[in-house]
Write a structure and sequence with these properties.
Structural class: mainly beta
Strand order of the largest sheet: 21-22-23-24-1-27-26-25
Strand content: 35-45%
Shape: globular
Mean pLDDT: 93
Radius of gyration: 19 Å
Low-confidence stretches: 3-23
Number of strands: 27
CATH topology: Neuraminidase
Distance between the termini: 30 Å
CATH superfamily: TolB, C-terminal domain
Largest sheet: 8 strands, mixed
Order of helices and strands: HEEEEEEEHEEEEEEEEEEEEEEEEEEEE
Oligomer: single chain
């Protein structure tokens, strides 16, 4: 996440956060438009950033402030599924990019009851702002309650700054856990001589792939692209700035990731094994670091980008594979923190971007924090009407036909 309050506050602060410096424009474009409706299914939440669905359809909603809430049918249960507030680094209520940022259920959850979280804990090394923690938990005998004492820490990564944490977790079709990590924060990836994104001896600025099916920590899949090389073996892809939400197309298995840009551009990538996605050599398809010569022949360029006139902080979504909204079939649905919703449609060798116009949307500012996909491949959008995580104006909406 990466946001700020009113536009004046936003402009002054984004330079520090390394997000950008221009507010989105409301000007119309000639891009195709799909009209949809969103239906509220839960509200009163603290900055809901991601969600997962159990085999029986129960929705587990991760709040940035540290709780995982249970939506059972139409009822948002008062007692949290898991409360990690006491494990988090102290958050700023007005604005923060740290917190509980990811949740994923094990592919065999119905049998083993295991699930995984990504959260921001106090640093354990001098000079670090905090550390990112990936842990395994087990659901208790009560399916609406996790066993809080069952935590098994798999991975910790020291973070030099408070922002650009990534934080998404997804199991791939191969059964391995994929983890998104930002470049360590600040602006311009000024870490070392080449930045963390291009440094293969750090996990920052990468998408990782690990095997959690072991009793001690995790294993490295032997077909990971950098096994046996001068690089961290966990790395699946690199050259990312802040991958804020990625997902697998359940039909094709392709991995889509949205990467938050610096000053001018936001981008969507299809992540491939061993791919270098350019940061900080490139910002989307544009040269960012002239000293690196901006040679693109060995880089994976985005399938789509947009300028900061349209939005300043991309939020990745899903390829729609549901049956309820035919017009969305096969399209990649995503958005921007400032409110716009988009789709990408594959036509020939290119991806064409269009806009999604909504009815059923609340009045006022609607921040797009994340998306979720249920067991029937129907899509949800997670939102907030405040900049920071302190309030309870977070809500979850389902995409439905008009």
């Amino acid at each position: 996440m990466r946001r700020m309050k009113k536009l004046s506050f936003l402009i002054n602060t984004l330079f520090v956060l390394g997000i950008g410096c221009s507010a989105p424009s409301s000007k119309k474009t000639n891009e195709p438009v799909i009209s949809l409706k969103i239906q509220k299914i839960a509200d009163g939440l603290h900055s809901p950033v991601t969600a997962a669905f159990t085999p029986d359809g129960t929705m587990l909603i991760a709040e940035q402030t540290g709780q995982i809430k249970v939506l059972k049918g139409k009822d948002l249960l008062e007692v949290a599924f898991l409360d990690l507030k006491h494990k988090l680094v102290k958050l700023s209520g007005a604005y923060d990019e740290r917190g509980l940022l990811g949740i994923a259920l094990h592919p065999d959850y119905k049998r083993n009851k295991k699930f995984y979280v990504y959260y921001s804990a106090p640093a354990t090394e001098v000079g670090s702002d905090h550390q990112s923690v990936v842990s395994e938990f087990i659901t208790s005998s009560d399916p609406m309650k996790a066993d809080s004492a069952s935590e098994r820490v798999l991975l910790t990564v020291q973070q030099p700054e408070s922002n650009h944490n990534g934080g998404d977790l997804k199991f791939g079709p191969d059964g391995y856990l994929y983890i998104g990590l930002g470049d360590g924060g600040g602006a311009g990836d000024k870490h070392g001589t080449s930045g963390n994104g291009q440094n293969m001896n750090t996990l920052l600025g990468k998408i990782l792939r690990i095997d959690v099916n072991t009793e001690s920590s995790y294993k490295i899949p032997q077909d990971n692209p950098f096994v046996g090389k001068r690089a961290k073996s966990e790395i699946w892809a690199f050259g990312l700035r802040n991958p804020w939400r990625f997902s697998f197309d359940r039909k094709t298995g392709q991995l889509f990731a949205a990467d938050v840009g610096q000053n001018k551009f936001e981008e969507v990538n299809i992540i491939e094994k061993g791919g270098n996605y350019g940061w900080k050599i490139m910002e989307a398809t544009h040269c960012f670091d002239p000293e690196a010569n901006c040679k693109t022949d060995k880089l994976k360029l985005p399938i789509n980008e947009y300028k900061h006139e349209l939005g300043i902080s991309i939020t990745g979504g899903y390829v729609y594979n549901g049956s309820a909204i035919k017009v969305l079939s096969g399209k990649y649905i995503f958005g921007d923190w400032t409110g716009p919703l988009f789709f990408l449609e594959h036509k020939g060798q290119t991806w064409t971007r269009g806009n999604i116009e909504l009815t059923g949307k609340p009045s006022g500012d609607l921040k797009i924090l994340g998306f979720a996909e249920d067991n029937f491949a129907e899509l949800y959008v997670l939102t907030n009407q405040e900049v920071g995580p302190k309030g309870t104006k977070g809500a979850v909406y389902k995409f439905v036909n008009l």
